[in-house]
Design brief:
Number of strands of chain A: 14
Helix content of chain A: under 10%
Number of domains of chain A: 1
Oligomer: homodimer
CATH topology of chain A: Jelly Rolls
Shape of chain A: globular
CATH class of chain A: Mainly Beta
Strand content of chain A: 35-45%
Bound molecules: manganese (II) ion
CATH superfamily of chain A: Jelly Rolls
Number of helices of chain A: 2
Largest sheet of chain A: 6 strands, antiparallel
Low-confidence stretches of chain A: none
Largest interface: A-B, 53 and 53 residues
Chain lengths: 189, 189
Amino acid sequence: MYKEPLGVKVDFETGIIPGAKKSVRRLSDMKGYFLDEKAWEEMVKNGDPVVYEVYAVEQEEKEGDLNFATTVLYPGKVGKEFFFTKGHFHAKKDRAEIYIALKGKGGMLLQTPEGEARWIPMEPGTVVYVPPYWAHRTVNTGNEPFIFLAIYPADAGHDYGTIAEKGFSKVVIEEDGEVKVVDNPRWKS
Amino acid sequence: MYKEPLGVKVDFETGIIPGAKKSVRRLSDMKGYFLDEKAWEEMVKNGDPVVYEVYAVEQEEKEGDLNFATTVLYPGKVGKEFFFTKGHFHAKKDRAEIYIALKGKGGMLLQTPEGEARWIPMEPGTVVYVPPYWAHRTVNTGNEPFIFLAIYPADAGHDYGTIAEKGFSKVVIEEDGEVKVVDNPRWKS
Ligand SMILES: [Mn+2]
Ligand SMILES: [Mn+2]
């Protein structure tokens, strides 16, 4: 009748959650996401690297229940753009989320439905509160895997389509050896 | 109109969240919670130690929103019983919670409304899923502060009364130098 409590040891160095459902996103799974399409095509041909892996422990889609998942976002760039996760709104748009950075260096791009963006840098120990209604994408701006834990309502769901189509209004690039958050030239509000 | 995203650096060594609301529970705030009432009274007279501190970042009580908080649970015993947090059910009983152990050694006692108990040991990296309907209390079984982060629905609320009155069906004690989870002699189902 009651669900069993669960205790799992998460490896903060590798992000692995024993027994969790693992998914893998390769660069070929992210067609159209990066600005430099030639660089993307070249990299897909030459090994199609893993961009990120997710280990998720999820419950039924019920109000008030909670899921948790780690993400291992690998270092890399497509052209000037740092590797990132696809990013999404929640299908139930008013569902919040909490991220906890465990290892590496990166940040989160957030965006309202109207395209107002925010950039929050993350390092181990950074806790990010994603308020209701904001799309969110993480970016690895470092040289090692960027690993974080996320907790989200079990009934939040994912809307990837809006971001897949329009992207974010900002992009995170390396220029002159620096991390820069600049306007997305392809963005149409 | 939209709430602002928030990024805070949480010190995993001290549990401190800059800007968070801090609350302090001293032993005198926990009258009736420990089995050995004489030992409790003596300790309250002799310094009334802090048992735990909580740093909370909380939102309005809205469905789908999330709060987070760290707890610093100090090492200590009242008689044979290890220091613990008061423990509670959620006021909205079907709200889940996720705990992440950051430092020190301890565990979580969980209990259904009918008094069926579970004990989950926790060390840094342990993530505990508290399913809907389970009361939960953390216990420090080590010699240093036991520090953890919790994420819970903003509309979960707290029902402390049931546990304050009846306690848990199990108690966590030190006996012969060992940590033991044993039946609570005062428990009435
Ligand atoms: Mn999300
Ligand atoms: Mn709780």
